[in-house]
């Protein structure tokens, strides 16, 4: 009797389940069937923009549908992220986001126009970049450890470092480093990395912690000295420069990263289709070359990997912000 009842129940539910399964299968097989908008929450020509265009171009080539990059900058990425958070959850509006839009902005802004986790469906990790601890050659240090000892000897806030923003990835990386190594330096804030670089080259400031790409040619020429990179492993373009972690600060990893997300509620089969293709892209020699030419490195990861990464980064950066006593603005 139990078997017969189960069969009857199954037969009764089959007409209801079939259309649902058909709709899900149809959504996956036909997606995308119109133009897809990829919102980049920063201005054109920066690394975030370049990675957004690489991801969009790859998906367009694979699926033969137009993927248009739309730059919507402002509020550390919050303006563009809000647009995606409030877009229809159909897979036709995507975000090429940063560690800021995913994690750190919520600690730095009093009013957030979206929830960093609940407003989005995580799709895939896509890339990362190293911060570099760099100094003017006149500074008498050659390693990260020597830098720490020098700063301790000079006294709290007697040595300065420049970065492009309060709460930016370079600033937070240095705060993280200070909390691990037990020293204190003065933060000099600039309106962009180009101004930091200019003053560092002129020796108006002795050091910086900032995204590596603009400093790379000057490090290679000897105009600046790299003491360490913030990534978990040595950086492909500076293989002879050790990580900060391997210089006596195990566990230190402060590499900014990028990801793709969709509005919360996007059908899981569409999220999976996007995720699978972006993970494939991160292993493609052609895509890897384009990402590295932009100064970043490939960082593949599924939607599940991205969700786990966001959680671990939340724990880390919340602790750093609290230790630095950074007040939301």
TrEMBL record:
As given in the record, the signal peptide range reads 1-22
One Pfam match, by short name? TctC
Keyword NAD tagged: no
Q: Which UniProt keywords apply?
A: Signal
SUPFAM superfamilies associated with the record: Periplasmic binding protein-like II
As for family, the record states:
Belongs to the UPF0065 (bug) family.
Q: What is this protein called?
A: Tripartite tricarboxylate transporter substrate binding protein
